[in-house]
Specification:
With about 450 residues, this protein is of the alpha/beta class. It folds into two domains: about 1-30 and about 195-245, no CATH class; about 40-185 and about 250-435, Alkaline Phosphatase, subunit A, CATH 3.40.720. The protein is about 30% helix and about 10% strand. The protein has eleven helices and 13 strands. An eight-stranded mixed beta sheet has the order 3-11-5-10-9-1-8-7, with helices on both faces. A three-stranded mixed beta sheet has the order 6-13-12. A two-stranded antiparallel sheet has the order 2-4. It is globular, with a radius of gyration of 22 Å. The termini are far apart.
Amino acid sequence: MDILKSRRRFLAGLAAMGVFAPLTQCGLARMALAGQTEQAKLKVVFFVVPDGLAVDSASAYSSDGRGFWHPSARALDTSDFQLNEVSQELAAYKSQSLYVRGTILGPGNEGHNGWTWALRDSAKKMASIDVLLGRHMPGTDPSQRSLFSGPHSGIDGTAWQVSWEGPESGGAMRRPEQDPVLMYEKIFGSVSRDLREQLTRNKHVFDPVLADINELRGRLAGAQKQKLDTQLDSVEQTMKDMEETLPPIGECSPLALEEVPFKSAQFRNQVQSSHHQVVATALACGITRVATIQVGRSAESLNILDVSDVTNPHDCAHRLGGLDVWKKSRQWYTQRAKLFMDELARQADPDVPGDSLLKHTLVVLTSEMADGAPEHTKDMPLVLMGGASGLLKSGDGAGRYFNITAQGDRHQEGNPVIGNTMVDMQRIWATIARAAGTTVPYGGNVDPVTGIFTNV
């Protein structure tokens, strides 16, 4: 019953057999000849940081919304707003940003369990929004529909990840790629035209596997047969992916990533940067159009040496090392999002080569928590950034602050700034899905929030 436990293991076996060509600059140069189109295609990246972004004031141990994150504004919907001490780290992209205020994640008081809701439905039953979008808007390689990059996420053995498969795929929590070098090799291992033809010729390598599975099916019943059927689906999906894989588009410039201890605090900034480069390059090659970057994990323990070499990020979030490292740690996480935006701005879009990749990408920055000291998920940090192919209503080049509590569907004790009515976060995912041309299979209220996108 150990046949193809994971599709990745099987593909690794193919690589060992020589089916996947090694990545070379010559190979990538050939990819650039595959051709380019001029039809804009939306890309979406979810950038998730841990333990909130200090939405509450230094003395608050409940939701008061007067901390270092939310911008200050005199109107509910305005381009006249001022960034706060943490959100100020994104000042370079203020003009193409929409700061959304008034959302609630899960029950609102689940603390570190917020990672189980972060990108999912309120019932925690369905696939996360990144997986759903990846199914709807694939790139040239169907096996890379939704990248999951996890710089320092779960490196301590605690797997609190925010991306999930749906019940039709077993409902499992996805494991991110932690090593950026390995992630690069996995993504770019099978993308040239001549290799695609070779893969088609080598489809027969699956025949013995299919024969074994079908032979076993006749002797099994119940749960065992169901498990085997799932494995068969995996093989068939792999074959389908091979048939549908196309050469990449765009420049597809090769990366020269340095191998460093990717679990080390000493190399934290470098590893984070390498993850940014890998994700941005995959988007720029057209290989994928959807990605999630999860920085660390909720209650993470790996020190951020730029902030403190004695107080870990979790303790910083709890203000246990003082207010200075509390603020600086939240600023560091926000700076990572800014640096990723920089990477997108440097790359050319694969579909409209005269544009930057950022012009056709929507970046969603949020957390699994609002504030790490009260450990609640009310009045969540949420900003949507990037050109998004013109779909994002970000203030016509001035940036925008948008308090959406008037559209709220959840009534719970809120805070003195926004009150007791908030929008369930699953409606934000439903809204993004609509903007991308699809829907979410979530129960409960999935009414889109109006005023965020031009097409919703």
